[in-house]
Design brief:
- This protein has one domain.
- The radius of gyration is 13 Å and the shape is elongated.
- The chain is mainly α.
- It is built from 3 helices and no strands.
């Protein structure tokens, strides 16, 4: 099976669409907003949401 750059990009985007809202919700951020962040930003969005501060401990 030959994975192309496009296939890897799609896999990373789908993983980001799943993980970004989960991480964002745990940090007190908008899960819906970060779903779209994961959709449009892909792996970069995942890195950004992971680096955000926790709003719950305000």
């Amino acid at each position: 099976m030959n994975l192309t750059i496009e296939t890897i990009g799609i896999i990373v985007t789908v993983i980001s669409m799943i993980l970004c809202p989960i991480i964002a919700h745990g940090k007190g951020r908008s899960a819906v907003g970060w779903f779209f962040g994961g959709l449009f930003l892909g792996g970069i969005g995942l890195i950004i949401v992971a680096c955000l501060s926790d709003k719950n401990n305000g």
